[in-house]
Amino acid sequence: MKLFESITIFFIVLIGCSILWTATEGGSIWTAESARRANILEMPLSMPNKIKIEMHNSQVKELANPKTNIVLIDFIYTSCPTVCVAMGAEFKRLQYELFNHPNYNNLSFLSISFDDSDKTENLNEYLERFKADKTKWQAAKFTSQIQKKKILELLEVVVLPDKQGGFIHNSAIYVQKNDAIVEILDFGNFNQTKQKVITYLESVS
Amino acid sequence: MTWLIYLFLSLIGLALSLFIVNILESSMITHMLILYPVIIYLGFYFGCVLLKHYPNVTNSWNKSGIAGVLIASFALIFWMIPRWIDASLNHLLIDVLKYGSLFLFVGVSLGISWKKLGPIAKAVIKIEFITMLYRLGWIYMISPDRLCNNYFLSEQKILGEALIVLAILCSILWLFPLFINKKSSAYKSMKTN
Fold this sequence. Notes:
The complex is a heterodimer of chains A (about 200) and B (about 190). Chain A has an 8-stranded mixed β-sheet with strand order 1-10-9-4-5-6-2-3. In chain A, strands 7-8 form a two-stranded antiparallel ribbon. Chain A is about 40% helix and about 20% strand. By secondary structure, chain A is an alpha+beta fold. Chain B is globular and about 55 Å long.
């Protein structure tokens, strides 16, 4: 019986380790955030049709029809004192440093607010804070709760209301190439982000 | 007729449990330090009762209790990975699977296997448990990134501190008796007073 027990223990350890190995993609992915970033590189997410967003100039557009081949998207709320300001600053710097790139006209920026209380004036004010070139960098809000929920769930953007009327959210920069999201970038790593954007710009020339 | 009453009560019990689980899942601390232990303890109690009525259950492959403890360890580690905690909070099916496996693979498995273990195995498990609490508590306290998308960074830090406190308590509870000489007259007089 001892042999049977030893064999069982061996298989339990083998199966247990395999399950944990698969569950963490080989010990590399421990958080939902790194999971979604790795998944999207393997399988780009197509933007669903008919998702309407209202721009800062009150125009209504569809998310799946971007005006340029490459769009950098971030999800913000305009009254955010910290993270969204940092992301805005990063977009501003990207806008400034990539201005002279030969494929610059293939790039645009889009900041989408998930805060229902943000109006078009707030969106405009957000862009003006960063001296955005409004032909290149636009801000928008969702036109319906159902569509907002659909997109946030699709991209795994988790928004948690904090106790002070603001929100905690997993911030990142989403790269939209034509009509699909192809990569999710860390927003704190400017040089790496810039390099990746340049690679994408060169891939659509 | 009585089965109707039982059905009714079970449905109410189910609704109540869903309600309580939802509340406890809303905060990281209550989720990890109240909900997890409660479900595991329920399984453990069930396993102990099972062992009492069927003392030879799983003896063919679990006579020393080690196999059962290994199953429990792997299952518990799985459900402590932040990615899977997040997945269980976002999808109901994964949540149900989580509580099922915590009850069965961790709780019942431990309930059946604990009494079969020898004193050395028990001691090793206790020590590993304490060191795991220290490691996890430390990581949660110092990590600058939010490990779970569904919880705040502040909750993570507080949970880390709570885990360290728990580790210290367990250390005192389990290691302190090792330093008491149970045969000494001082101890015997303490016990009789």
